[in-house]
Amino acid sequence: MFSILRSRFRDRQQFRLFGMLVLASFFCGLLVAGRIYMNRYNLQEINSLREVVWSRDITFIFLLWNLFLAWIPYLVALKIDRLRRLGAGRFAMVAWMLVWLVFLPNAPYIITDFVHFRHLPPVPFWYDLILFFTTASLGLTLGLLSIYEIHLIFKRWFSKSFAAFLIFLSMGLCGFGVWLGRFQRWNSWDIVTRPEALFRDIAETFTTRHELMHAASVSILLSCILLVGYGLLSVMLDRRRS
Q1: Which residues of 181-194 are buried (b: 16+ CB within 10 A; e: fewer)?
Q2: Residue 47 pLDDT more than 80?
Q3: C-alpha to C-alpha distance for 12 and 6, rounded to whole angstroms
Q4: In sequence order, what DSSP letters do the residues of 38-94 get, joined into one string?
């Protein structure tokens, strides 16, 4: 069983990274469960699971949902890498790359969940700080690792400079996607379920000066965070690969 699972990964490094990310996600789940336990008396008046989920200030379950969404671009990137190793055509890989790009903003989006952070007894201040920091760090790491996987493929297809350009472009689009999600409240799947409304909102953003300035500032800031983080990550991973 272990050998079958191991064979689905490119090398030992990729397999070990995946395992550590799973363990880190499990730890985040334990932190949320601990928070719910500390709030157990506040949950006595809640009568259904739906009410538990929507009791955001008590449970913070939304952090696990956002973490689940952050996993999607990483899993898609691993899928694309496996397709490449199996000799799949570029058309199929490009189609999956579009899926990856659409869901990529969900990874750094968790950073913006700090807007919900505040001291809410009986949970200690330091506990929630660790919870938010851990989920945000893990979400960002998942996004950066997915970018790394896609970059490896781009470097096989194109020159190094053009591959780097595509990655920079992806980061810029990712930053804009986070802005759409946090400030315009759009989801990744709205590009399929509500495309007309989404593109109309984007068009209004580019034709309204103050909205455009706001979107540009947030997008640039988040892109710079991704760029710095990816630079550090790629140096470490490339060194181990060499």
Answers
A1: bbeeebebebeeee
A2: no
A3: 8
A4: HTTTTTTT--SHHHHHH-HHHH-THHHHHHHHHHHHHHHHHHHHHHHHTT--HHHHH
Q: Is the pLDDT of residue 242 over 70?
A: no
DSSP string spanning 70-84? HHHHHHHHHHHHHHH
Question: What is the DSSP code string of 117-149?
Answer: ----TTS-HHHHHHHHHHHHHHHHHHHHHHHHH
Place of tokens 């988040």: 222
Reported as a single tens digit per residue, the pLDDT across 177-234 is 999 999 888 888 888 899 898 899 999 888 888 889 999 999 999 999 999 999 999 9
Residues 76 and 103 sit within 8 Å (Cβ to Cβ): yes
Rounded CA separation 52/43 (Å): 8
Phi, psi of 61 (to 5 degrees): -65, -25
> pTM of the entire structure?
0.91
108 backbone dihedrals φ, ψ, rounded to 5°: -75, -10
Residue that wins the pLDDT comparison between 140 and 53: 140
Please give the span between the terminal C-alpha atoms of the chain, in angstroms, as a whole number.
Answer: 29
| Helix/strand/coil for 9 | coil
Q: Is the pLDDT assigned to residue 145 strictly greater than 80?
A: yes
Distances (CA, A) of 208 to 180, 199, 214: 15, 14, 10
